[in-house]
Amino acid sequence: MIGKLTGRLDYKALDHVMIDVRGVGYIVYCSDRTMATLPSVGEAVQLYTELLVREDLMQLFGFTSLVEKEWHRLLTSVQGVGAKVSLAILSALGPDGVSRAIALGDWATVKAAKGVGPKTAQRIVLDLKDKAPSVMAMGGTVTDALNGPELDGVVEPLEEAPAKPARTSKAKAPSGAAAASAGALSALGNLGYGPSDAAAAVAEAAAGNPDAGEAELIRAALRLLAPKG
């Protein structure tokens, strides 16, 4: 299994790139959002990857964070959802948006992705709603894994290519919003709330205030979880 690639970006196409890793070129398919974050051709790049193996096909899919990779793995585990549909969902919503939509049971938002019908969207939410809390919690646990050393001389310019100043590009650390959601989710769990209820409350609070910090999310989620009446 190929779990991560570190090398030089050889070229960009519409939905995939080639990464040169010590002379071996790997074709990696990515979501639109991931493609938009990649550096210029000729520069260093690092992606987490998932390998799809079939009788007549082997494809690599690339992600800038472990959270995005995990959502891709879970999405493609749903009946009728292949890699193309998964990337369409991640392109439309991003990993944080997928977390919110599934935690809230919001299949209409999932349906907004290209190629996703209402039945597929409902199946995704139904099958994965219980998985949302654990993926949302990853936002606060992968920072150390992503803050390792920079790419140290692993990318050598080809002889025929003009030399360029070295610039490294590491896989992305969780966003502030993802880390805040993960922290709030952990705090609610410590207070005794169930994972699904806590995830739904945090997702709703984050949707209402995307810039909220952890403390704000906890307070807002507690208000949502408070008994009504």
Can you walk through the features of this model?
GO terms for molecular function: DNA helicase activity; hydrolase activity. This protein has 229 residues and is of the alpha+beta class. Among the domains are: 1-65 and 142-173, OB fold (Dihydrolipoamide Acetyltransferase, E2P) (Beta Barrel); 174-225, Helicase, Ruva Protein, domain 3 (Orthogonal Bundle), CATH 1.10.8. Helices cover 46% and strands 17% of the residues. The protein has 10 helices and 5 strands; from the N terminus they run E-E-E-H-E-E-H-H-H-H-H-H-H-H-H. The protein has helices at 32-37, 66-75, 83-103, 107-111, 118-128, 132-138, 143-146, 176-190, 195-208, 214-225, and strands at residues 4-12, 16-21, 24-29, 44-54, 57-63. It has a 5-stranded mixed β-barrel with strand order 1-2-3-5-4. A hairpin with a 3-residue loop joins strand 1 (4-12) and strand 2 (16-21). Helix 6 crosses helix 8 (176-190) and helix 9 packs across helix 10 (214-225). The longest helix has 21 residues, at 83-103. Residues 142-169 have low confidence and may be disordered.
Question: Topology, pairings included?
Answer:
Layout: E1 4-12, E2 16-21, E3 24-29, H1 32-37, E4 44-54, E5 57-63, H2 66-75, H3 83-103, H4 107-111, H5 118-128, H6 132-138, H7 143-146, H8 176-190, H9 195-208, H10 214-225
Parallel strand pairs: 3-5
Antiparallel strand pairs: 1-2, 1-4, 2-3, 4-5
Helix pairs in contact: 2-3, 3-6, 3-9, 6-8, 6-9, 8-9, 8-10, 9-10
What's a quick, concise take on this entry?
The protein is an alpha+beta fold and 229 residues long. It is built from ten helices and five strands. Among the domains are: 1-65 and 142-173, Nucleic acid-binding proteins (OB fold (Dihydrolipoamide Acetyltransferase, E2P)), CATH 2.40.50; 174-225, Helicase, Ruva Protein, domain 3, CATH 1.10.8.
